[in-house]
Amino acid sequence: MAIYNYKGLDKSGSEVKGTVNSEGLVAAKSRVRSMGIMLTEISEQTSGSVKKNASFSFGSAVSIDDLSLMTRQLATLLRAKIQVVEAFTALVDQTENPNLKITLSEIRQKVNEGSSLAKALGDYPKIFDNVYVNMVDAGETSGTLEVVLLKLADFTEGQLKLRNKIKSAMTYPVVMMGAGGGMIGIIFVFVIPKITKIFISMKKTLPLQTQICIWISNFLISYWWLLIIAAVLGWQSFKKWKATPSGRSKYDAFVLKVPVVAEIVTMINVSRFCSTLATLLQSGVPILVSMKIVSNLISNVHMKKAIEDSRQSVSEGASLTGPLIRSELFPPMVTHMIKLGEKSGELEPMLQIVAENYEDQVNTKLSGLTSVLEPIMMVVMGLVVAFIIFSVVVPLIDLNNVTK
């Protein structure tokens, strides 16, 4: 089935427009006419046409909320033993997001023509990333697609919650930084130039800090546009560098060394690793397949490599924890509890305990992030203001002494 946009006139002569699902153009026209509408225009809708007609959007125009809800609905339908094509038919009818609705319709058509679900999803990388596609592929291969989809829904919801927590923790510091930066900018652009005229009239050598302050003021007034260009080019260059394997490896290694941030990143990945692995194992997914799926959810490439090495170790009949311990990226408590779980045959409960513990720690750390950043920002802003005042006040005092 495809989706068609139509325009026409109703019985009163008023213009109407809408969409219909139909097997083909002829059937779509017949369906619209059966509603008492005289057709003036009808065309098949595609994901490309939705993007072109969108007023303004970034990325895929599909939110994490929409994606998570769709994933959970699909998992529920598949668990109810509904065929994939029929499940997607139901999703197309239920989905309100126009871009996602058309995309799902196209995926349904591809699956109906014999494509695997993972391959069909892979044709829409702006909506379904590599993690999503790889997990679906593993679920199809192992016959546990509905379990994997439920975990994907949890994962996307977890991403949204984590993002909201970070935003909440950073709101106050960002507002403070913006307000402080704006005030300092006003001082440099409007106040310092006026005081500079007084300094010039003094006709004497100014202190180094005052010369630096005047130079910054002149630079901001004359070359503000250069700062914007440099910021944009720098950000784009950073994104391209980070997208390369070498750049991503170096960036992730750096993140694991940054105070506070390293601890939060480690906790998030450990919680994700333990929670997902426990869920998959409890659902009957083989451990090698489970670890392949789990490795796709880990954001840090070095921690991901440790998990992949651990999977290889398990496939060779060795311990799960050996590579994790050697990597020195997983906290000793985590590897110790996993090791105990392996020996006692209670691996899933141990993993769940670790996941819950670290999830609580992540929430605590994020809640305390504001209390850590606030004094640091206050000190930095205080130092900048002190530098400006010292740069301005010292020459004025000298001028006052000369006048006396």
TrEMBL record:
Q: Which InterPro entries match?
A: GspF/PilC, T2SS_GspF, T2SS_GspF_dom, T2SS_GspF_sf
Question: What Pfam family is a match, any one?
Answer: T2SSF
Keywords associated with the record: Cell membrane, Membrane, Transmembrane, Transmembrane helix
- For the keyword Transmembrane helix, the answer is yes
| Ranges in a coiled coil | none
Segments passing through the bilayer:
170-192, 212-235, 376-397
Task: Specify whether Transmembrane helix is a keyword of the entry.
Answer: yes
Q: Which Gene3D superfamilies match?
A: Type II secretion system (T2SS), domain F
**From which domain of life does this come?**
Bacteria
Localisation per UniProt entry: Cell membrane
Question: In what way does this protein cross or attach to the membrane?
Answer: Multi-pass membrane protein
Query: Type II secretion system protein GspF domain: from which residue to which, for each copy?
Result: 71-193, 273-395
The Swiss-Prot or TrEMBL record describes its family as follows: Belongs to the GSP F family.
Kindly provide the name given to this protein in its UniProt entry.
Answer: Type II secretion system inner membrane protein GspF
Task: Write down the species.
Answer: Bacteriovorax antarcticus
Q: Which gene encodes it?
A: gspF
